[in-house]
Amino acid sequence: MIEKIFDPFERDEIWDVKQIRGTGLGLPLSKKIISLMGSNLQVKSTPGIGSTFWFDIEVPVATKAIKQEEKQRLVVNLEGKNILIAEDDEINAEILEQILISFSAGKITRIKNGKECVKAFEKSEIGYYDYIIMDIRMPIMDGYTATKIIRQMDRADAKTIKIIALSANAFAEDKEKSSSVGINYHCAKPLDNEDFMRALLVP
Q1: Range of the domain at 13
Q2: Cα dist. 52→21, 45, 55, 190 in Å?
Q3: Measured between alpha carbons, how far is 95 from 159 in angstroms, rounded to an integer?
Q4: Are residues 89 and 153 in the same domain?
Q5: 39/116 same-domain check
Q6: Are 149 and 183 in contact (CB under 8 A)?
Q7: pTM as predicted
């Protein structure tokens, strides 16, 4: 079981599943976040006794104290905002959803490819969604194609809904391509929290 402990949705079969809360994504999410910080989550476990988890992270030493008034904090409040997430990676989608929940987002809908994204937007009431978080590389239909189709729809919110791209490719030409198809903001993966907040605040 220990070799599967970081696999999504895995739970120990020796326990009554009814007594176990959660989805089995806690450890995979933790491992993913720690890996994005340049480390690796490790475990040592003894059945019937307990488990120890640990990781090492290098951080720079602060050269001076930062006063509260010197911080220019971004504040994002998504209360009442409905968001459509198009992301085929389950763990990435879960991380995104938790970030959006921390910003008090309203209804969050998750789908796994561009084609489903187009259908979900098309079937929604006009103005229902405030944001689309669009992964670029997805099966069946990519984010660029999905955005083009959405922008060409004959409905009032097709041109105005905010679409934020997520991509491991973040060169100038990638951002230009995103802009050319109607994407409002291009975020690089792994996701930088402040950059994502700026994307959400773009008018």
Answers
A1: 2-54
A2: 20, 6, 10, 27
A3: 28
A4: yes
A5: no
A6: no
A7: 0.72
* Position 60 in a domain: no
DSSP 8-state assignment for residue 37: T
Query: What angle do helix axes 143-151 and 172-181 make, rounded to 10 degrees?
Result: 30
Report d(CA 203, CA 197) in Å as an integer. 12
Q: State the total domains in the chain.
A: 2
Q: How far apart are CA 37 and CA 56, in angstroms?
A: 10
The predicted pLDDT at position 8 comes to: 73
Cβ 87 vs Cβ 96: under 8 Å: yes
Q: What is the pLDDT of residues 102-155, one digit of tens each?
A: 999 999 999 999 999 999 999 999 999 999 999 999 999 999 999 999 999 999
Cβ pair 164, 156 in contact under 8 A: no
Which has the higher per-residue pLDDT, 114 or 50? 114
Quickly tell me which residue has 């008018």 as its tokens. 203
- Torsion over CA: 139, 92, 32, 47 (sign): negative
Chosen domain end from 33, 54, 75: 54
CA distance from start to end of the chain: 48
Same domain, 11 and 110: no
Determine the average pLDDT of the residues in 167-171. Answer: 90
| Residues ≥6 apart with Cβ < 8 Å to 196 | 99, 164, 187
66 φ/ψ angles, rounded to the nearest 5 degrees: -105, 115
Residue where the block lists tokens 């198009």: 86
Which is nearest to 199 in space by CA: 177, 171, 179? 179
